[in-house]
Design brief:
Elements: H1 2-5, E1 7-11, E2 16-22, E3 27-31, E4 40-45, E5 48-51, E6 54-60, E7 66-72, E8 79-83
Antiparallel strand pairs: 1-2, 1-8, 2-3, 3-4, 4-5, 5-6, 6-7, 7-8
Length: 87
């Protein structure tokens, strides 16, 4: 299931890119190709992951394919990220 969530997601609003990859217990999410430590978001509900006060909720189309995510933290609410095309 984690593999279906893996990929690159971009936000035109924030001019940001998240890259999600499977981790030991959840999803490792790197922001803007950062070189520092990569936080692991842990599952808290179906298609929803949390790291400290940040939430990622993955969006699916009618066929069940992951098409994007919404990012929420204490300052931002439901910022939309679109999944980059698979290559």
């Amino acid at each position: 299931e984690m593999q279906a969530l893996s990929g690159r997601y971009h936000s035109d609003e924030l001019l940001a890119v998240f890259e999600a990859t499977p981790g030991k217990n959840g999803l490792m999410v790197r922001a803007n190709d950062s070189a520092g430590g990569v936080p692991e978001f842990l599952p808290v509900a179906p298609d929803t992951f949390q790291f400290r006060q940040s939430l990622l909720h993955f969006r699916r189309d009618k066929a069940g394919k992951v098409v994007g995510l919404e990012y929420t933290n204490p300052l931002l609410r439901k910022v939309k990220f679109t999944r980059a095309a698979d290559r």
